[in-house]
Design goal:
Length: 301
C-alpha cells in the first residue's frame, strides 16, 4: 500500500507529560523506540523482540485484512504502523501530539517512500481533531495520558470512526482502589498513595488510572460498552510490564551521565523513580497493563 505524507501545521495540543526529548528516550528504549509494555514469548528474547511480539499480539486481535486502514492513536515513534505496513498489507495513519515524534515518523515514511516500500501517513494532531475514517483503531499505552473526563468522548470517537465490525484494540495501564486491593489481600499504605500522586502528577497527567472493569468506579469495559462496543477479549500483561520497566531502568542507569547532561538530575531522578516504582507496583498487583479488544457490532440482518 502507498500513501501521502502530510506536513500539516502542528496543532497546539499540550503534551501528555513533560517531554525530555528524543535522545533522552533513546537512551533506554529499544531500537524501535517503542514506549509501551512489551510481551515476552520466550524469556531469552531481547527487549526489541518482545516489543515486536507485543505489536504483533495487538495487530493479531484486530482482524486486519489487506487494504484496510489502521489508525494508531498516540503512535509514538511509529513502530506499530511500520510493523503493520510490513506484515499486514494495510494502510496506516498515525496520530501524535509530539512535534519531535511527528518529525521522526514523517522522516521514516519519506525514507520508505524513496525506497519504494509501503508508505503510510502521520498527522500531528490528537484524536479529537481527526475527522476521517478507519477500519481498525489501535491505542497502545496512550489512554493513561487522557484526562478521565475525556474517556466517554474517546470511545464515542472510536465507535463513529469505524464501520460495523470495526475493532478497537486498547492497551492501557489500569489501577485499583483501596477496596479492590483489600479484597485481593494486597496491602496499601500512605506511601503507596504518595507514589500514585507523584505518578499521576508527572508521568500520567490524565489523573487516576482507570480500573479495568466495574461501574463504581467506572472501568474501561464500562466506558467501551456504553459507547456501543462489545468487549470480546481482555488480556493482562502485568508481569511483562514489570520486565519491560526493568529493562528500561537498567538502560537508563547505564546512561546516567548522558541523561543528566541532556535533561538535568531532576528529570533523570523523576524517570528512575517512575520506572522502578511502577515495576514494584506491577509485581505487587497495584497496577496492571491490559489489552482490551472492543468490537463494534454488525447491524442485525
Amino acid at each position: 500500500m502507498t500513501g501521502h505524507i502530510t506536513d500539516r501545521e502542528v496543532h497546539t495540543h499540550r503534551a501528555p507529560h513533560s517531554d525530555p526529548g528524543d535522545e533522552f528516550f533513546s537512551l533506554f528504549l529499544d531500537p524501535t523506540r517503542t514506549y509501551s509494555c512489551a510481551f515476552w514469548t520466550h524469556p531469552d528474547d531481547t527487549l526489541e523482540q518482545a516489543q515486536l511480539a507485543k505489536i504483533d499480539l495487538a495487530l493479531g486481535k484486530c482482524d486486519l485484512r489487506t487494504g484496510m486502514t489502521l489508525l494508531d492513536v498516540g503512535c509514538g515513534w511509529g513502530s506499530a504502523i511500520l510493523r503493520a505496513m510490513d506484515t499486514r498489507e494495510v494502510n496506516t495513519i498515525g496520530l501524535t501530539v509530539s512535534r519531535s515524534q511527528f518529525r521522526y515518523v514523517r522522516d521514516q515514511l519519506v525514507d520508505r517512500l524513496v525506497r519504494g516500500q509501503p508508505c503510510g501517513r502521520v498527522w500531528p494532531q490528537g484524536w479529537e481533531d481527526f475527522d476521517g475514517h478507519a477500519d481498525r483503531i489501535i491505542c497502545i499505552d496512550a489512554f493513561e495520558h487522557f484526562h478521565q473526563d475525556r474517556y466517554v468522548e474517546f470511545f464515542d470517537f472510536a465507535y463513529r470512526t469505524m464501520p460495523a465490525d470495526g475493532v478497537l484494540l486498547l492497551q492501557t495501564i489500569v489501577g485499583y482502589n483501596r477496596d479492590e486491593l483489600r479484597a485481593h489481600g494486597i496491602q496499601h499504605s500512605s506511601i503507596d498513595d504518595a507514589f500514585m500522586r507523584f505518578l499521576t502528577g508527572t508521568i500520567f497527567a490524565g489523573g487516576p488510572l482507570p480500573p479495568p472493569t466495574g461501574r463504581d468506579p467506572k472501568g474501561v469495559t464500562a466506558y467501551a460498552e456504553d459507547a456501543g462496543f462489545t468487549v470480546t477479549g481482555i488480556q493482562a500483561l502485568g508481569p511483562h510490564y514489570a520486565t519491560t520497566l526493568d529493562h528500561w531502568t537498567d538502560a537508563l542507569h547505564e546512561h546516567r551521565d548522558r541523561a543528566i547532561e541532556l535533561t538535568g538530575a531532576d528529570i533523570y531522578n523523576t524517570y528512575m523513580r517512575y520506572l522502578t516504582g511502577c515495576a514494584d507496583y506491577a509485581r505487587r498487583g497495584h497496577i496492571d497493563v491490559m489489552q482490551f479488544t472492543c468490537t463494534k457490532p454488525s447491524p442485525p440482518h
